[in-house]
Amino acid sequence: MFQGSSALTLDAKGRMSIPARYRDVLLADEQGRLTLTRHLDGCLMLYPRSTWEVKREQIAALPATARGLQRLLLGSAQDVDMDGAGRILVAPELRQAAGLMRDVMLLGLGSNFELWDRAQWEARSLDDANKVDPAILAQFSF
Question: Model-level pTM?
Answer without folding.
Answer: 0.90
